[in-house]
Specification:
heterodimer, A: alpha+beta, DNA polymerase, domain 1, five-stranded mixed beta sheet, 34% helix, B: alpha+beta, Enolase-like, domain 1, 3 domains, five-stranded antiparallel beta sheet, 11 helices
């Protein structure tokens, strides 16, 4: 079954079996392994990507259903070598430990803040219910989202991966 | 986890979808958002030969309001139902139930038509659909019919839909403005599914007596039900605490509670009565405020 879609701003054409899940297409065909496979039962959210701007679980979408869509994975969130303000906030606030859930957390946060740029703590916790973290206990993740909201409101744009200070130190 | 192999065809219209169902018979399944079907396919609890994708049929989209009712297209997502201004103002019970389905990502993809057709015993919508006395519209080879909500849910994962019918929309008569409503849910902490969910709509006379009341219950048994004995006990009454408590104790009306690892039958019975009481109290409070 032929499909064509835009992934991280690149147009892709492929021939896929109808049963191919979007997450398998992204990982196996495009080597975009930032979309993680966790529970595979639509619960953990590690496979979250943005499809036409909405956070979705790519383990519960057929690649053929994404035909014509625009998909953003964690790899496409910011130009190579830079961090999106949400990624930077997760870094600054230690919003991760093992990092397995982080791509999904970050993309869910991007969608959450697009809908609600100044969410309450309760809205953040409710908004991230579809992403499970087994390390952090969520407190630092909530702080990361709050920090990201502030920096996006202040007009932050993707920053080089090394901070200015550490770059100067070199 | 991969589903087993299947053929895939996109239907451009409801008629085309019906024709494909007729052509392929039992081996064909409809898919829209896929959030009920794909988990089943991945676990290989079902292995259809063919999926008919109805997810892009324009006429199944959208929310239409007339003076008397709201028609919600089958492809309307839980997120859209939770956030649509018309539904929020006219059918707050339905938008509240939709907002509590699964999680954000699931609500972005899952559709009301798919959730109703799948008829999971622990789904949220049935409680609201029953309490709102909705009609489910289905189209098949012999035309279109309206199925009242109380005749729609037949058994575990079983509805009144025929194999060659497509659920096209849900039509809900507008409750009077100022009606009271409540959705009370005890959610499974891991999955978010309802261990018990109780939806209610209450309309009060000016003097405070009950003019109309409907109660729908989901999660507690293999199939959702209307709590008719509770409704009868409340009809015409002023909603004092003892009246509410006595009516809530009649909620089961002879159904068999589920008894599984999420809760024993006795636990579900107690939770159902308690949530019914809370739902009536909250709905009555909202009705009094108008």
């Amino acid at each position: 079954m032929p499909i064509s879609l835009t992934v991280n701003s690149v147009e892709r054409r492929a021939e896929v079996e109808p049963r191919t899940l979007l997450v398998h297409y992204l990982r196996n065909e495009l080597a975009l392994t930032g979309a993680h496979i966790g529970c595979e039962t639509s619960q953990c959210g590690a496979c979250t990507v943005l499809m036409d701007g909405q956070a979705v679980k790519s383990c519960t979408i057929l690649a053929v259903q994404a035909d014509g869509a625009s998909v953003t994975t964690i790899e496409g969130l910011a130009p190579v070598g830079t961090l999106h303000p949400v990624q930077q906030a997760f870094w600054n606030e230690h919003g991760l430990q093992c990092g397995f859930c982080t791509p999904g957390m970050v993309l869910s946060t991007v969608a959450l803040l697009a809908d609600d740029p100044d969410p309450s703590e309760e809205s953040i916790r409710h908004g991230l219910e579809g992403n499970i973290c087994r390390c952090t206990g969520y407190h630092n993740i909530v702080r990361s989202v709050q920090t990201a909201a502030k920096s996006l409101a202040a007009g932050a744009t993707p920053e080089p991966l090394l901070s200015r200070d550490s770059a100067q130190a070199r | 986890m991969n589903p087993s192999e299947f053929a895939y065809q996109r239907a451009g219209s409801v008629e085309e979808a019906i024709a494909l169902l007729q052509e392929h018979g039992d081996g064909a399944k409809l898919i829209a958002g896929g959030h009920s079907l794909l988990p089943i396919l991945k676990l290989r609890l079902a292995e259809p030969d063919m999926l008919v994708d109805i997810g892009r049929i324009p006429e199944l989209r959208g929310v239409q309001r007339t003076d008397a009712e709201i028609a919600i297209g089958a492809l309307t997502t839980h997120h859209e139902i939770a956030t649509d201004g018309q539904i929020q103002s006219a059918l707050p019970l339905l938008s509240d139930a939709a907002a509590r389905v699964g999680d954000r990502q699931v609500r972005n993809r899952g559709t009301i038509g798919g959730a109703l057709a799948h008829a999971d015993a622990a789904a949220d919508y049935p409680a609201a659909i029953l309490a709102l006395d909705a009609a489910i519209v289905a189209r098949g080879p012999r035309g279109e019919r309206r199925i009242p909500a109380r005749e729609f849910f037949l058994d575990f994962l079983t509805t009144a839909l025929q194999p060659e019918e497509v659920l096209t929309e849900v039509r809900i008569s507008l409750p009077p403005e100022g009606h009271g409503w409540s959705y009370q849910k005890l959610a499974n902490q891991a999955s978010g599914y309802a261990i018990v969910g109780v939806g209610t709509v209450i309309v009060l006379h000016d003097q405070g007596a009950v003019a109309d009341v409907r109660v729908g219950v989901t999660g507690a048994a293999a199939v959702a039900w209307r709590a008719e004995a509770t409704e009868t006990a409340l009809q015409g009454q002023r909603l004092q605490n003892d009246v509410i408590a006595a009516a809530a104790d009649l909620v089961d009306g002879g159904i068999d509670y589920l008894d599984d690892l999420h809760g024993s039958a006795e636990y579900r019975r107690r939770v159902t009565r308690g949530l019914t009481r809370r739902a009536i109290v909250e709905a009555a409070g909202r009705a009094r405020q108008g």
